[in-house]
Amino acid sequence: MMIRCLAAIGLMLASVLSTPVSAAGAILCCENADGRRVCGDVLPQACYGRAYRRVASDGTVIERIAAPMSDAERIAAERESRLRELEDARRRSQRLQDRALLDTYRSAVDIDQRESRAIGEIERDLAKARERLNQLKHGQERLQEEAKLHPAGAVPEDLTQAIRDNQSELAAQETVIDAKLKNIDAVRARYSRDRERYRALTSTAAGR
Fold it and tell me: Cα 23 from chain centroid?
């Protein structure tokens, strides 16, 4: 048994020793500043800072190693990488928004109905605000007529205060009305975007 083991070990050693060293190794080659090929068992000094390749003994290229990037190239590569990251983030965000949109609406008709309800609520509040504005304008006319009954500079303080309060509330009410009108425009714009995107998504899905 021992003799057979020793014989097997001897055969393995013979096999290893018979393998050419050049077949297991590789050389490193590049083109120097003059465009000439330079090779060595270790990276030649002429290849420092240049692209090079690992070449097997039979001439086969095992690996290509790119030259180190310059500062300008590194900055450009970092910028490109950052732009790719931003674009990937934008696409992920868009996918989430699209999923939420499809989960929110049952159909394009559902979007129309929701828009109508949202605008209807604002318009009801707008009507009340306009009604209050008209009341304040009528009150302003009444207060001004009452002020005319007094000599210039002799208008009672309580009447003067009432006129000031009326003017302040008029300005506030006009601001409220303006805000509600802008809100209606914003709601219409939002539902218009949702409607357009919903149709694009559903038509794409239907065409698959």
Answer: 53
Residue appearing with tokens 């002020």: 147
Give residues with Cβ within 8 angstroms of 95, minimum separation 6: none
Distance of CA 174 to the CA centre of its chain: 38
- Distance (Å, whole) CA 176 – CA 136: 14
Question: What does the block give as tokens for 108?
Answer: 């394009």
Cα–Cα dist 198/92, whole Å: 17
Q: Would you tell me how many other CB atoms lie within 10 Å of the CB of residue 105?
A: 19
Quick: pLDDT tens for 137-164: 999 999 999 999 998 888 999 999 999 9
Tokens of 200: 């694009």
Query: Within 10 A of 115 (CB to CB), how many other CB atoms are there?
Result: 17
Report if pTM > 0.70.
no
Instruction: Report residue 2 as tokens.
Output: 């021992």
